[in-house]
Each structure stands twice: as C-alpha cells, then as structure tokens.
Write the structure tokens for this entry.
Amino acid sequence: MQSDAARLRLGSTSIAWRDLARVFAIGAGKASARMALALEQILGERLTGGCVVVKDGYGAPTARVDILEAGHPYPDERGQRAVARILHTVSGTTERDLVVACISGGGSALTPAPPDGITLGELQIVTGLLLRSGATINQMNTVRKHLSVFHGGRLAEAVAPARLATLILSDVVGNPLDVIASGPTVPDPSTFAAALAVLDSYGLRAQVPAPVRVRLEAGLAGRLPETPKPGDPRFARVTNLIVADNARAGGAAVAAAQAEGFTASFVTSYAQGEAREIARLVAGTALDIRRNGRPLPSPGVAIFGGETTVTVRGRGKGGRNQELALAAALVLEGVDGVAVFALATDGSDGPTDAAGAIVDGGTVARGRTAGLDAAQALRANDAYPFLAATGDLVRTGPTATNVNDLYFALAW
C-alpha cells in the first residue's frame, strides 16, 4: 500500500482520494493489530477509524483503530462480540467509502459468528473435535465457513457497496485466499457437501452437536443458501492482496543464516503431513548435511516451511512444532553437531507459551536424566513437559506476525 496527496495505491488498484469520503480499518488475526498500526502510519488523518480483533497479548499501540482481544484457538464470547463490533463499523458505509481489512492467521477462531440455530458452545465443540482429529487447516476452515455468517465471503457481503481492500498475511500452505482466516472477503468455492465430507473423513458426523449436523445436512439438501461463489457481483469492488507469506519468512531466514556463516537454502514452503513424519525428513536432512555434505556443505542449514498436523491420541500438552521437535530428537539421538529447530512464526505453538523447540543429539539423554522417556512422551502427545525439562523449549512471546511454521535442519 502506498499513499500520496492525490491517490491511494493497493497493488495494481489506484484510487483517487477525491473519490473517497471515509476510510475504515477492520480485521482479524494474530498480526492484524500491527497491520492496523502500519495503516495508521501510512494514512494518518485520512483513516477515519475502525477495529480489529487479535489473540490475547497480540495488540499494538494504535491511535485510531480499536484493538479487541478474543480467545484462540478456541472461540469465545469476546470474539462473538468483536464480530458484532466489526459488522457495526461497516454497516453504514456507502459507495464512496473504503474499508481496509487486515486479515491474518488465527482470524477464524477469533471471529466466531454462528448462524441462527447454532450456539457458541456448539461451535466450540466442533472446533475441539477438528483440532484433535488431525484435520488440515483447509479442511477445518471448510467446515467453519459453513457454520458462520462472517466467513466464506460473508464479510464482503456486509461491506458492499463500499470498496473493500483486504491485506492478507498468509498462514496457509500455497496461499489459498479462501482458506486464510476462512476467507471472510473472498468468494468461497467450498460447499456444504465438502464440509460434511470433512466430518465423515474423520468419523465426526455423529459426534458433532445435532444442530450442527442438521444445518450442514439442510445445506446439502438445498434448504439453505450456499456461501457466495466466484462471479458473485458483490465482489466486483473487492481487492485481495497477499502482503507476506511463508516463503518470504524463509528467504529472510536464509539471509540470517548466511550472515552467521552457514550455507543455507530454503527447500520448500509446502511441508505438510503428520508432525512426527515431517520430523524424520527434517532430522534426516540434518544428518545428511553432517555426514555427507548434502544437500548443503557443512556448516549448513536447510530450511523447510509449511504446517504439519497432529492426530491427538494422548492427553499430553504441546503443539505441532514441539511434537515435531521431540520426534526429531529421537532421530538425532547420540549424534554430535546436528540440531533441529521447529518454530511457529507467530510465537505461539498450540495451547502453550512456547514458539517451538530446538533439539540436538543430546536431548533424549537429557530427558532420561530428568526421569523422562522421549518415546513415551511422543506417544502421549506430551512434548511440552519433556522439552521444558531438557531446556529445549523456545519462548519468543507474540511476534506480531503469522506466516506458518519454519523447520531448520542444522549441521556443523
């Protein structure tokens, strides 16, 4: 986004200031407060006001945009109130107004907007079932979009006829606009049938609350309207722009590693699958660099980006990056000069205060000294206490961004 005395430029879109009456900022996601702060710095007094909703602790010192906090990853009443506030902000806009939406990862959970007939509590149950099932973010958000009056393009409906420009930080592999924060300003290609297929693939249709099942089945039968689809005229004045993503973070990590004397390469931003399986790939790459000088000479670091999943079978505590790190530690056990670092770029890995962990060939032994069994902890999905005991957790606090995860295979 760029602004001068005459025009505002949003990617390839250029708008004359004389054609705009007011500019509002709204948004949702872990990075949206910092995005709103940047908007204030760019637009100054031209920004009329607005509000964004963030996870607790992810605020920013904005002057014109109100920062609201809500629950994540489980939606709460604060998030429901935040949705009402956002919709109220845009309710009186006209064709001469511009609404700038700051959207980033976390936006789905932070903006629960259950339709009539479904309660917030029922939405929370669905969220928990999906989080524990091993469903991908694409699958989770397919369901969420069909249990919302905000996501799946519904926010764009509410903003019309005003202009809408959405600035997006992508936390989804491949940057699919309709999936990031459940695509509140994007046409939705998914369907009620697809949402039910997700539940069926994980055996959840019978487990979700009855009103949820009834709604999705009514939509499948055509008794409820679908989310707005590509080609809908209400998107004619909508611009959606990716402003940062995992590949950009990976490139910055390569530059930082090279500055420290490592050879470095960003391998992919498409690392997906069960965390413990991806751990074998990342840890194996570290061993290959150490022993064979491939795919990089030592000292080297191969950097992977993406988002793994965890099928929760135990009752432990952790996040997908901690699970990946613990699984990698078992592969690296007893080997000197290697390490794996798994990082959530938002600084929050699952329901914990850790961003991830960095493990090496001595991690398993340090846990054993503390009376802990690494393999048992992995079976119980209980990485956090193990990695806390070994001193391998990494705590960054909120980073004010959210562009998926990064996994580092290091050898020296």
Q: What stands out?
A: The chain has 14 helices and 15 strands.
